Amino acid sequence: MDDPELEAIRQRRMQELMAQQGVGNQQNVGQQKAQDDAKREADERRQLMLSQILSSQARERLARIALVKPDKARGVEDLVLRAAQMGQITEKVSEERLISLLEQINTQTSKQTKVTIQRRRSVLEDDD
């Protein structure tokens, strides 16, 4: 029942599919590498700008904050960079100024925790 011509067509088609997947994977890998390179370059530019804006003590404090709360540190970095771009910061940000910025952010973003206790009613419990 095996037709040699049909088998040859199947083999060729299988090779074409494998080649397409290989090319697709290479493109995906290339795109992923390009995205990683762009992200790394953006992070390097960001760190360079921060090193120009922040004093060494402020950078150290921000690095310690980033270890514990990376999202909060990222928010402070964004705030400092935005202020510098708008011309609100004319000199290097000291550690004291960074602390005051952190306190302002804490008061603005303080989350209120609310606990609600719901008790389960037993089937045998009487509400009469």
TrEMBL record:
One of its GO terms (molecular function) is DNA binding. Residues 17-44 are annotated as: Disordered. InterPro entries: PDCD5-like (IPR002836), PDCD5-like_sf (IPR036883). GO terms for cellular component: cytosol; nucleus. Pfam families: dsDNA_bind. Residues 20-32 have a biased composition (Low complexity). Residues 34-44 have a biased composition (Basic and acidic residues). Belongs to the PDCD5 family. This is Uncharacterized protein. It comes from Spirodela intermedia.
